[in-house]
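Example S7 (structure tokens).
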């Protein structure tokens, strides 16, 4: 486990150093320090959002929304922005073949592309501040006010959201993100 983690850091560091604008790196890079958040996220619909695009999944709902239940939508650009991570952006989902790790609505869809803030978090705690990763690091924290959820996905561009839909942030935070009562794994690399 320790060797694997170090390998991860070594693999990451060359690209991270060169980074100017943050780009997507995928959930495997978050798991290292946030395994409990990961386990909790796995139990939500967000971790299965890509499967909804497959043929015959939720057939009745698709038919009712005017979609073709027999069609495979997993390569349809009209669906990918909200059912994958970072579609069309650097490091983000391209296709199931090229970027199989970027399916579903992962951490970075809600917290922003992670290349820069993870570089900060990989350093010793105390060498960066919360302000660093929330401003220079490109991290986003969804809130009722910030509208990240409704601007990005929970809006009428979805075939399943009708006019008059109201997004309940507190309720969705409970069922659609992860538990919010867990500690970080501090210093997982023992640095
Ligand atoms: C090297 C370990 C490490 C990795 C890898 C890591 N984190 Fe973190 N993360 C932390 C630590 C430690 C904190 C607590 C910050 C602090 O107090 O210094 C934290 C805090 C956070 C917070 C809370 C911020 C706040 O101020 O409330 C979010 C959100 C977060 N991480 C998301 C992610 C995401 C998304 C990824 C993957 C792209 C990731 N982290 C990868 C260690 C890590
Ligand atoms: C703008 C973002 C967005 C786009 C584009 C989008 N979806 Fe979704 N989709 C969502 C959201 C958000 C939900 C969850 C709705 C809810 O629970 O409020 C969802 C839910 C679904 C569901 C589950 C519906 C149910 O009630 O069980 C299916 C199936 C689905 N989408 C398929 C598709 C397909 C196929 C496309 C492309 C033709 C597509 N989506 C395009 C955001 C989007
Ligand atoms: C669907 C959106 C969504 C996804 C996906 C998501 N988060 Fe969050 N995350 C949130 C929201 C919302 C908050 C809380 C903001 C608040 O306190 O109001 C949050 C808060 C956090 C915090 C701060 C402490 C806490 O628990 O409230 C950490 C750490 C964190 N997320 C890490 C992660 C990691 C790691 C992943 C991926 C395994 C992830 N998040 C996936 C929406 C998301």
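Recovered sequence:
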């Amino acid at each position: 486990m320790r060797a694997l983690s170090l390998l991860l850091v070594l693999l990451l560091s060359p690209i991270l150093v060169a980074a100017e604008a943050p780009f997507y790196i995928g959930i495997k890079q978050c798991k290292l320090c946030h395994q409990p958040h990961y386990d909790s996220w796995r139990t939500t619909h967000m971790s299965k959002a890509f499967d909804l695009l497959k043929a015959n999944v939720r057939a009745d709902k698709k038919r009712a929304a005017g979609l073709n239940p027999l069609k495979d939508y997993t390569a349809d650009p009209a669906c990918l922005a909200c059912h994958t991570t970072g579609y069309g952006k650097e490091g983000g989902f391209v296709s199931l073949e090229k970027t199989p790790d970027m399916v579903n609505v992962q951490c970075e869809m809600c917290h922003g592309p992670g290349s820069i803030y993870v570089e900060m978090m990989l350093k010793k705690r105390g060498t960066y501040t919360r302000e660093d990763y929330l401003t220079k690091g490109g991290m986003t924290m969804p809130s009722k006010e910030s509208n990240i959820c409704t601007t990005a996905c929970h809006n009428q561009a979805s075939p399943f959201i009708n006019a008059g839909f109201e997004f309940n942030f507190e309720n969705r935070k409970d069922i659609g993100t992860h538990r919010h009562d867990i500690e970080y794994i501090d210093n997982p690399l023992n640095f």
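Notes on this example. The pocket of heme C (ligand 1) is lined by residues 25, 29-30, 32-34, 107-108, 111, 114, 118, 121-122, 125, 130, 184, 186, 188 (CB under 6 Å).
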